[in-house]
Every structure is written in structure tokens, then in C-alpha cells.
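Whiteboard transcription, Tuesday session. T.W. wrote the C-alpha cells on the left side:
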């Protein structure tokens, strides 16, 4: 079971990175209705996959691996969870923006997106991906017992 949950955790994490990469690719040019729909779908996928990463990861912490008491004394684990929270907060602006675009298009409004807003959205998605990269570093350190202070 431990190996299955490790696989699920990693598969969800890779899916999350893929969904964020799709968002980044779609944000290259001002979006039209079709692109907005794809952005919303990619963002929903990213959210669901992030939730799976968290749920499966916490199941691993509490029911498999070394146990919650061990991870509570692991600096890389604490860093990984902090980074996860930061990535979640960073994702709020893009999510709310994509949903507002979809609502505007449903009302028949013409979507005009300033280049600065696209740059800001790309920057945030890049920051999310950087956070994931740092989580991978924390996971590698954690797996080797680096930073355990118990």
C-alpha cells in the first residue's frame, strides 16, 4: 500500500505541474473565449490535482512512511508544507481572474486584457512552478533525513 500511495502522490504532483504548464502556455497571448475555457479547465485540474497531492501526502504521513511524529520534527517537511500553502495563495489571483473572464464572456462582454495583467499572471504561474521545484528539493532532503531535529 505504501508504494501505491507513493505512486499516487507523485502522479498527482506531475499532473499538477502539467496543468500549471498548460496555464503558462495559454497565457502567452491575450485570451479569446476558447483560451479562457481552456484556462478554466486547466486551473480546475490544477486545483483538483493539488488537493490530491495534499490528501495523498497526508495519508502517507499519518498511515504509511515514518509517521506524523517524525515529520513534525523535519525542517524540510515543514518547509514543504509552507511552500504548498504559499503556492495555494499564489494560485488565487489567477483562478479568480480566469473565472471573472469566463463570467464576462458569458455576459457577452468583449474581453480586453492588458499586457501588464498577462505578465502578472505569467509571473504568478512561474512562481507557483518555482514553489513546486523547491518542494521537490525539500522532499529529497526529507527522504534523506536532512534537517530532522527530533
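and on the right, the sequence the group agreed on:
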Amino acid at each position: 500500500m505504501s508504494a501505491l500511495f507513493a505512486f499516487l502522490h507523485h502522479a498527482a504532483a506531475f499532473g499538477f505541474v502539467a496543468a500549471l504548464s498548460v496555464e503558462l502556455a495559454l497565457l502567452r497571448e491575450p485570451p479569446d473565449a476558447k483560451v479562457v475555457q481552456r484556462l478554466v479547465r486547466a486551473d480546475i485540474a490544477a486545483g483538483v490535482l493539488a488537493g490530491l497531492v495534499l490528501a495523498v501526502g497526508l495519508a502517507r504521513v499519518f498511515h504509511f512512511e515514518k509517521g506524523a511524529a517524525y515529520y513534525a520534527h523535519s525542517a524540510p517537511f515543514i518547509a514543504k508544507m509552507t511552500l504548498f500553502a504559499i503556492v495555494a495563495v499564489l494560485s488565487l489571483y489567477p483562478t479568480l481572474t480566469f473565472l471573472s473572464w469566463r463570467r464576462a464572456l458569458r455576459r457577452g462582454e468583449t474581453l480586453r486584457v492588458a499586457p501588464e495583467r498577462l505578465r502578472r499572471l505569467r509571473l504568478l504561474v512561474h512562481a507557483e512552478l518555482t514553489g513546486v521545484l523547491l518542494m521537490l528539493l525539500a522532499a529529497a532532503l526529507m527522504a534523506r533525513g536532512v534537517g530532522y531535529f527530533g
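Someone added at the bottom: Residues 2-143 form one domain.
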